[in-house]
Specification:
Number of strands: 13
Shape: globular
Order of helices and strands: HEEEEEEEEEEEEEHH
InterPro entries: Cupin_DUF985 (IPR009327), RmlC-like_jellyroll (IPR014710), RmlC_Cupin_sf (IPR011051), YML079W-like (IPR039935)
Pfam family, one: Cupin_5
Strand content: 35-45%
Organism: Australozyma saopauloensis
Helix content: 10-25%
Number of helices: 3
Largest sheet: 6 strands, antiparallel
Distance between the termini: 38 Å
Strand order of the largest sheet: 1-2-5-12-7-10
Radius of gyration: 15 Å
Protein name: DUF985 domain-containing protein
Structural class: mainly beta
């Protein structure tokens, strides 16, 4: 198996502002309008390597995001839907026990991701394409006020104030 450091080097990954490592691997030459009216690519792709000590904190984007599992340990996507429902999805190779190889996070869902040990390598495709102007992160207090029933997950997957 390829190691974390080998993947970072071979795939030329950079530190991700929200935890882990990433590199954009594709951007459509076709342009479309985003949910907020911006001109964005039809889709964008990244490799994303998440490590145990640096989860991807709760955030929201205005597009659908499809996650594809590649290697490493199980990665959990934590979703809080607009109606307050919470869902955990395990991406990994143990499909006999409920893990999935891909998962779509619908636009507008507040989500985070984590690995319990070591690291996981995934790819993400966003359509309409990702644009940081449509990225929103959340404070712990903000999420706890709106979704107090998810306190444990929110405390674990938001930055300290």
């Amino acid at each position: 198996m390829t190691s974390l450091l080998e993947y970072v080097s071979i795939l030329d990954l950079l530190p991700h502002p929200d935890g882990g490592y990433f590199k954009e691997t594709g951007r459509s030459s076709q342009v479309t309008k985003s949910a907020t009216g911006l001109d964005v690519p039809l889709f964008t792709n990244i490799h994303f390597l998440l490590v145990e000590k640096h989860p991807s904190f709760y955030h929201q984007i205005k597009s659908d995001e499809v996650w594809y599992y590649h290697d490493g340990q199980t990665l959990t996507v934590h979703c809080i839907f607009p109606n307050g429902d919470y869902k955990e999805v395990k991406l990994g190779r143990d499909v006999k026990n409920g893990e999935v190889l891909q998962f779509e996070v619908p636009s507008g869902v507040i989500f985070a991701s984590s690995v319990e040990k070591e690291w996981a390598l995934v790819s993400c495709m966003v359509s309409p394409g990702f644009d940081f102007r449509e990225f929103r992160s959340f404070s712990r207090a903000e999420l706890l006020e709106k979704f107090p029933e998810h306190e444990e997950s929110i405390n674990k997957l938001t930055r300290d104030e």
